[in-house]
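Structure tokens please, single chain.
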Amino acid sequence: MVSIDGQPIPSDPTGNFIPADVDITNASPVILNIQAENIPAGSIVDLTMWSEAGNSTNFSSSPLVGTEQPSTATGVVTVPYGFSRFYIDASWTN
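Here you go.
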């Protein structure tokens, strides 16, 4: 992930809740910009968001576009109040 709601992700994110890597104050759905390398264009990126409340949300990105060096996609999710972490996974068949 390279940005959430227009805010860049640090180049070396910690994944800690305090301090957070990115502060999101938007209660509306936010756009996650994803960049991939060595993953075929057209692949879907699956994302999981874990909130500190213990709830998880699974969602998918748009298909990756571009080349394998790099490709990009977007995902949209509403981030709940409090702290959340994101996990990203992409799979494909050759």
